[in-house]
């Protein structure tokens, strides 16, 4: 029996253990810090970045900062609002033009109607059919303006008596054509039938009879990219700049009015459910800490190499089979069979096959030709090989019973 | 720091106040209670850093036998130690109960017995002992992993020991035989005895008969004080497994049986484990237990994944035994490696010594050779027969170079090698 000396402690203290643990988890802590910083930066800088199309603060090609800046330079007070209540308040404050850009159609028709009533003049950028329903001026979308063959937006002439439209002259934009009291920049929209009978015409800029409500079917004329084309700028500035104040309203999801009085299912639960879930989560974390702590480090096992001795023979067998070496396999089997018989029959090791067969014939009393025919015949197919191999094995057992 | 299941249970009990008084207050109060319990427990737990650990291990244990690692824990703190102790033995040490709980009063010591049943021959290690000291409430514990290395030497099992009595009896029967039956160059004169009917008349010592006036025959005894050099090949070919045992282990069994038999037969035994360099060497000396030193030297042997260098074996043999001796090479007869390694080196050995080449044959090859049920099996049979034929050819080449060949299945190799030794001794060829 060997007895080692006594060991006590790991040479450290609780403080060093804590320090080591801290040092070990440094990568994790660093990762968490980096993640938090990235998250924070994203949250802080998120609202400043404006990449929405036709936003007056967006200087990118789809934005509409150019129009807003020019209007501001001309003395128009551009007020940018993004909630329904703010919009109402701004419109009530004084004579103002409303520009409503609601591509997601958050507002209902009654909200749109209310806004229009308050505004001196309203320009609706590509409103939905539902939103137009309450206006009563038989505004209606006709269809998308077909593009020209090259894929460019078509250039359309004013073709109406509206002052803003005639000042602009021509318009280059794609969008939706609307029908209304005064249809400017008329385009023909095919209904897909192929003949002219089903086609309808509509205007890209449609106003009601007194010109207080205008539907701009091609809001892209306001974008920084397209505002300088044809008469786009003229129409944009004249349509939006007629009042001292322009209320540029882009509704958000918060402006959606709930249609039904639904019941929040959370109000049906007893008050202790939320704290209970929180507490059970804490318990789960504790249980994980309890089960996840190991009793010391893992022990390592130096594993031996496992090589099966018969593996080379198996590999050679697969080579034989893949290359269909029937003759070769048969020759080997016969050689092994003859070698065993020679040893059992005490024939000289260097004896030829004929001599072994002679000895086998003498020993077993079988006709030599029969043995010769069975042993020296070589198979050519797999099927023959199997039968022949079994046959010579039987023969060997008969001649030299063990 | 470690928390226990008891703390988790206490935390789950907190469900009751959280339901009865919903709100942040009850949660915070219960969390405070838990923190207080953990803090109290940690403060009152005996420091695991002040626990003395002394381990006692046996020098060696034979494979297949159980042994115990005895750990004495001495509590050097003024508090009672409620400890869970784990010894980090490598898995093949077969620790039955690696984690044990013990309570050690202040200033006292307790003994823990860890039962081991090793599953592999070789040097098994334990690096650390982990002590987890729980507080009086059993809610939290302090844990320290103490580096306390230990080594257990697992010796080869020597299963072939069961053949030893019968082989020794056969060896003893050689004593006192009349000379003619075993006439050979190396037999030695032993003693004279009275003629009994049946003795060969050629062994009558006429001079002694004349003196005694009674017919006296000479008797002979087998030669003694010969040298037996056992060379165990530890190169890559010894790693191959035959019947779920590496060739190396079968070779160790055969070497053990032969060495013990030869030592009892009065011969001097030298054991070498060799691949490209000497891995182990044991010489039987006048004093000391040969078997014990052999198993101790063989325990750490592992198959090295390199080719054996047979060209230097004659020099190694000459270094241990300059005289004519019986050289037993325990290796494998794989065609290819033998033709390039062993065969060129054999003449250097056979010109001075009697050489026996012993090898493990894979019984699986014969099974494969007899199975001819399908095309795939027949091709396998052909490949197996090819291997056996190659093996036979290599064995024949070795015989032509003047060495004996013992080629047998793992279970038969040790007794057959012992038989070969007895046969050589009986015919006086040593």
Key terms for this structure?
heterodimer, A: 402 residues, alpha/beta, seven-stranded mixed beta sheet, two-stranded antiparallel sheet, 14 helices, 42% helix, 15% strand, B: 430 residues, Immunoglobulin-like, Rossmann fold, 3 domains, six-stranded mixed beta sheet
Rounded to the nearest angstrom, the radius of gyration of chain B is 33 Å
User: Average pLDDT across residues of chain A?
Assistant: 83
Strand content of chain B: 25-35%
Give the end-to-end Cα distance of chain A, rounded to a whole number of Å: 53 Å
| Outline type of chain B | elongated
The CATH topology of the largest domain in chain B is Rossmann fold
Number of domains of chain B: 3
Helix content of chain B: 25-40%
Instruction: Return residue spans of chain A where pLDDT drops below 50 for at least 5 consecutive residues.
Output: none
CATH architecture of the largest domain in chain B: 3-Layer(aba) Sandwich
Q: Separation of termini of chain B?
A: 70 Å
Look at the structure and give the CATH class of the largest domain in chain B.
Alpha Beta
Instruction: Compute the number of helices of chain A.
Output: 14
Main beta sheet strand tally, sense and closure of chain B = 6 strands, mixed
Question: Can you describe this structure?
Answer:
The complex is a heterodimer of chains A (402) and B (430). By secondary structure, chain A is α/β, with parallel strands linked by helices. Among the domains of chain A are: 65-255, no CATH class; 317-399, no CATH class. In chain A, 42% of the residues lie in helices and 15% in strands. Chain A has 14 helices and 14 strands. In chain A, the strands form three sheets. Chain A has a seven-stranded mixed beta sheet with strand order 3-13-4-5-12-11-10. Chain A has a two-stranded antiparallel sheet with strand order 6-9. In chain A, α4 packs parallel to α5 (109-118) and α11 runs parallel beside α14. The longest helix of chain A is centred in the first third of the chain and has 20 residues, at 26-45. The radius of gyration of chain A is 47 Å and the shape is elongated. The model of chain A has no long low-confidence stretch (mean pLDDT 83). Chain B contains 13 helices and 20 strands. In chain B, the strands form five sheets. In chain B, strands 1, 3, 5, 6, 8 and 9 form a six-stranded mixed beta sheet that branches. Chain B has helices at residues 5-13, 15-20, 24-44, 164-174, 206-212, 247-264, 290-298, 313-320, 337-340, 342-350, 363-370, 375-400, 413-426, and strands spanning 2-3, 51-57, 60-62, 67-75, 81-89, 99-104, 109-116, 122-134, 140-155, 177-178, 188-194, 216-221, 227-233, 240-242, 245-246, 268-274, 278-283, 326-331, 354-360, 404-408. In chain B, α4 runs parallel beside α6 (247-264), α6 runs antiparallel to α7 and α6 (247-264) runs parallel beside α13. In chain B, 35% of the residues lie in helices and 30% in strands. The longest helix of chain B has 26 residues, at 375-400. Chain B starts with a strand and ends with a helix. Chain B has 430 residues and is an alpha/beta fold. Chain B folds into three domains: 1-155, Immunoglobulin-like (Sandwich); 189-221, no CATH class; 227-426, Rossmann fold (3-Layer(aba) Sandwich). The chains are: A alpha/beta (402), B alpha/beta (430). Chains A and B meet through β1, β2, α9, β14 and α10 of A and β1, α1, α2, α3 and β2 of B. β2 of chain A pairs antiparallel with β2 (51-57) of chain B, so a sheet runs across the interface.
């Amino acid at each position: 029996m060997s007895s080692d000396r006594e060991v006590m402690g790991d040479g450290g203290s609780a403080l060093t253990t804590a320090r080591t643990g801290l040092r070990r988890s440094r990568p994790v802590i660093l990762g968490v810090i980096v993640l938090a910083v990235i998250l924070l930066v994203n949250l802080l800088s998120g609202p400043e970045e404006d990449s929405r199309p036709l936003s007056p603060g967006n200087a990118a090609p789809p934005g509409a900062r150019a129009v807003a800046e020019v209007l501001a330079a001309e003395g128009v007070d551009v007020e940018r609002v993004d909630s329904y209540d703010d919009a109402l308040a701004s419109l009530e404050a004084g004579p103002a033009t409303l520009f409503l850009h609601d591509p997601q159609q958050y507002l209902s028709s009654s909200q749109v109607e209310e806004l229009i009533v308050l505004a001196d003049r309203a320009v609706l950028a590509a409103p939905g059919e539902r939103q137009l329903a309450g206006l009563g001026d038989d505004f209606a979308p006709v269809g998308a303006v077909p593009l020209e063959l090259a894929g460019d937006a078509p250039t359309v002439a004013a073709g109406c008596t509206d002052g803003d439209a005639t000042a602009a002259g021509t318009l280059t934009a794609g969008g939706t054509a609307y029908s209304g009291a005064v249809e400017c920049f008329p385009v023909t929209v095919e209904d897909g039938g192929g003949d002219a009978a089903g086609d309808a015409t509509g205007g890209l800029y449609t106003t009601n009879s007194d010109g207080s409500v205008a539907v701009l079917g091609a809001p892209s004329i306001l974008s920084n990219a397209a505002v300088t084309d044809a008469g786009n700028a003229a129409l944009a500035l004249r349509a939006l700049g007629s009042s001292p104040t322009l209320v540029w309203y882009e509704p958000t999801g918060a402006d959606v009015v709930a249609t039904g009085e639904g019941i929040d299912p959370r109000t049906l639960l007893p008050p202790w459910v939320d704290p209970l879930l929180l507490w059970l989560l804490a318990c789960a974390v504790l249980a994980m800490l309890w089960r996840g702590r190991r009793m010391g480090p893992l022990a390592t096992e130096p594993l031996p190499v496992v090589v099966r001795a018969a593996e080379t023979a198996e590999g050679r067998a697969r080579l034989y089979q893949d290359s269909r070496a029937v003759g070769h396999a048969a020759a080997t089997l016969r050689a092994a069979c003859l070698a065993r018989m020679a040893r059992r029959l005490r024939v000289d090791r260097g004896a030829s096959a004929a001599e072994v067969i002679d000895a086998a014939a003498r020993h077993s009393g079988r006709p030599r030709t029969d043995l010769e025919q069975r042993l020296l015949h070589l198979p050519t197919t797999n099927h023959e090989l199997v039968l022949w191999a079994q046959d010579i094995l039987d023969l060997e057992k008969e001649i030299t019973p063990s | 720091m470690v928390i226990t299941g008891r703390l988790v249970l206490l935390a789950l009990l907190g469900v009751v106040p959280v339901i009865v008084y919903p709100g942040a207050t009850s949660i915070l109060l219960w969390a405070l209670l838990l923190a207080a319990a953990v803090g109290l427990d940690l403060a009152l737990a005996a420091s695991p850093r002040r626990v003395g650990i002394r381990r006692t291990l046996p020098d060696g244990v034979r494979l297949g036998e159980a042994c115990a690692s005895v750990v004495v824990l001495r509590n050097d703190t003024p508090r009672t130690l409620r400890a869970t102790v784990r010894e980090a033995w490598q898995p093949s040490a077969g620790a039955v109960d690696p984690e044990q709980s013990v309570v050690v009063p202040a200033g006292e010591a307790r003994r823990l017995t860890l039962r081991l049943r090793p599953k592999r021959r070789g040097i098994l290690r334990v690096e650390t002992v982990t002590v987890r000291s729980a507080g009086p409430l059993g809610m939290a514990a302090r844990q320290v992993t103490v580096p306390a290395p230990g080594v257990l030497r697992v010796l080869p099992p020597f299963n072939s020991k069961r053949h030893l009595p019968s082989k020794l009896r056969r060896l003893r029967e050689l004593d006192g035989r009349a000379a003619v039956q075993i006439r050979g160059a190396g037999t030695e004169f032993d003693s004279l005895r009275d003629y009994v009917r049946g003795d060969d008349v050629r062994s009558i010592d006429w001079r002694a008969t004349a003196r005694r006036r009674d017919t006296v025959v000479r008797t002979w005894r087998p030669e003694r004080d010969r040298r037996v050099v056992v060379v165990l090949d530890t190169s890559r070919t010894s790693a191959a497994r035959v019947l779920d045992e590496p060739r190396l282990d079968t070779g160790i069994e055969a070497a053990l049986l032969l060495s013990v038999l030869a030592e009892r037969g009065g011969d001097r035994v030298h054991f070498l484990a060799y691949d490209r360099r000497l891995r182990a060497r044991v010489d039987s000396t006048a004093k000391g237990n040969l078997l014990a030193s052999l198993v101790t030297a063989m325990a750490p042997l592992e198959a090295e994944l390199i080719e054996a260098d047979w060209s230097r074996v004659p020099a190694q043999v000459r270094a241990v035994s300059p005289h004519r001796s019986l050289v037993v090479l325990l290796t494998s007869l794989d065609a290819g490696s033998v033709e390039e390694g062993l065969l060129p080196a054999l003449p250097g050995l056979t010109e001075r010594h009697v050489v026996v080449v012993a090898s493990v044959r894979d019984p699986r090859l014969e099974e494969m050779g007899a199975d001819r049920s399908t095309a795939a099996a027949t091709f396998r049979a052909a490949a197996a027969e090819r291997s056996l034929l190659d093996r036979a050819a290599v064995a024949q080449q070795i015989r032509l170079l003047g060495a004996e060949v013992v080629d047998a299945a793992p279970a038969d190799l040790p007794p057959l090698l012992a038989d070969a030794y007895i046969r050589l001794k009986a015919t006086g060829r040593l």
